[in-house]
Design brief:
Blueprint lengths: L1 H12 L2 E6 L2 E6 L2 H10 L11 H6 L13 H14 L2 H6 L1 H16 L6 E2 H18 L6 H12 L4 H21 L6 H7 L15 H32 L1 H15 L14 H13 L9 E2 L4 E3 L2 E3 L4 E4 L1 H5 L43 H18 E4 L13 E3 L3 E3 L4 E6 L3
Parallel strand pairs: 2-7
Antiparallel strand pairs: 1-2, 3-11, 4-7, 5-6, 8-11, 9-10
Helix pairs in contact: 6-7, 6-15, 7-11, 8-9, 11-12, 11-13, 11-15, 12-13, 12-15
Bound molecules: protoporphyrin IX containing FE.
């Protein structure tokens, strides 16, 4: 795991390391102070993205939001993303989609009472389902093919063939949207920016390829990451039964009168929200953040940093550093109850969504996709491990790809407590 090796090196060499990978200069940052220097004090210099092979193939020559170079085009896309695609109004409009998809998950698990359920597969399908409906609407017949193609991208196989396949699917989806006008989804919103009647020349010139690049971003960033947090949180609760018990008691206390879980009561779940904060401290799904690149020659402390130096911030190592966290390796959600630390990228010892100009714009979209399934699973089911495995024996090994996933699927036996 690169983030493990880099932590070991940082323990020896210190929180600012300079590496050359072949000809490519890299700095690796492993402290909150230096993370703040890079992502706040000198954010304007370090907010470019490097030209990487995989995103170039995958995201139409890096014309998406996450990998496009800093400049007017990125600024414009980011604005569309924040004001139009991921706005509060838009997020609220997808509430019923989220509730329906999570209820479907609960129903499907209930039918497997007493037998082994692969929660990893189920959670990924649920978040793909929510994202597909939000981005493509109901109209797509391609969801499964698109999802499989993304999985294969993750395995980095048959890249060129896959790129052609996903391109064909996305073009089909765009064409379908041009010819039918049902409830507005995110593809419809993006299409408005092709033929908008506003005066901004850039907004009128989003090409089909630009739109496809943004769709890929929303799909990958929206599904992989949220599923990852749900599964890591559930795994930590299985390993720490007292935490599970307290979370379950809270959810049932809040929702028992109603008899079911919906989004309106989620704000009462103070302890569950702390679990959701504690999870990416130990298991950040983007452990080195998305690489940045410096635009000019600069200095950090007494060191000169050349232009076009790539930057990795080891969020995974910072989250486990005993200098900044008591009992750093233990899963202790209590540390976040009544704590001012939030996801907004202002507390640099805790930046699972990044910080600064390139910070994740999808936080408010992501959180209900994590809170709602966890609350529903805790409300309806108790669970046990199969093969007589003890809680503390649950394997927590990681697999590194687009996001940091569990290496083995999380499989549990559900016991229905609230039908
Ligand atoms: C638990 C869920 C999520 C986590 C942990 C997460 C984390 C991150 C991180 C660490 C970055 C890089 C930040 C940096 O470079 O400083 C990022 C960027 C990004 N995320 Fe998220 N993300 C999540 C969910 C989402 C969702 C739901 C969306 C959209 C639907 C989204 C869209 C994006 C985009 C477009 C970028 C690129 C921003 C830019 O370069 O300007 N993310 N995310």
């Amino acid at each position: 795991m690169p983030h493990h090796c880099l932590k070991t090196s940082a323990d020896f060499y210190g929180p600012l390391m300079y590496l050359k990978l072949g000809e490519v200069p890299y700095i690796v940052v492993t402290s909150p102070e230096l993370a703040k220097e890079v992502m706040k004090t000198q954010d304007l210099n370090f907010c470019d993205r490097p030209n990487l092979l995989l995103p170039t193939i995958f995201t139409y020559n890096a014309t998406d939001i996450a990998f496009s170079p800093y400049g007017d085009y990125w600024r414009q896309l980011r604005k569309i993303c924040i004001v139009e695609l991921l706005s509060l109004k838009r997020f609220q409009s997808f509430q019923s989609i989220r509730e329906e998809e999570v209820s479907k998950l609960v129903k499907s698990i209930s039918t497997c009472e007493g037998s082994i359920v692969n929660l990893t597969e189920n959670i990924f399908s649920m978040t793909y389902g929510i994202t597909a409906r939000a981005v493509f609407g109901k109209r797509t017949k391609h969801e499964l093919v698109f999802k499989t193609a993304l999985e294969e991208y993750r395995a980095k196989t048959r890249l060129e063939k896959l790129r052609r396949e996903t391109d064909r699917i996305l073009q089909d989806i765009i064409n379908d949207h041009r010819s039918s006008h049902e409830d507005e989804d995110l593809v419809d919103v993006l299409l408005k920016f092709q033929h908008g009647d506003n005066n901004d020349p850039l907004q009128n010139h989003l090409t089909d390829d630009n739109i496809k690049a943004v769709i890929q971003d929303l799909f990958t960033a929206g599904s992989e990451t949220s599923s990852g947090i749900v599964l890591w949180a559930m795994s930590e609760m299985v390993k720490n039964p007292m935490v599970m018990k307290e979370a379950q008691a809270e959810v049932r206390r809040v929702f028992d009168r109603k008899g079911y879980v919906d989004e309106t009561g989620l704000h009462h779940l103070i302890y569950l929200k702390s679990i959701i904060k504690e999870t990416p401290r130990l298991h950040p799904v983007v452990p080195l953040l998305v690489p940045r690149e410096s635009r000019e020659k600069s200095r950090i402390n007494e060191y000169e940093i050349p232009p076009k130096t790539r930057v990795a911030v080891n969020v995974w190592a910072i989250g486990r550093d005993p200098i900044y966290w008591d009992e750093a390796e233990s899963f202790k959600p209590e540390r976040f109850v009544n704590s001012p630390i939030d996801f907004k990228g202002t507390h640099f010892k805790y930046i699972p969504f990044g910080a600064g100009r390139r910070m994740c714009p999808g936080i408010s979209f992501a959180l209900p996709n994590v809170e709602l399934p966890l609350a529903m699973l805790l409300y309806h089911f108790d669970r046990k491990l199969h093969n007589g495995l003890k809680n503390e024996e649950l394997d927590m090994s990681e697999s590194f790809g687009f996001s940091l996933r569990r290496k083995s699927d999380l499989c549990l036996i559900p016991i229905t407590r609230r039908p």
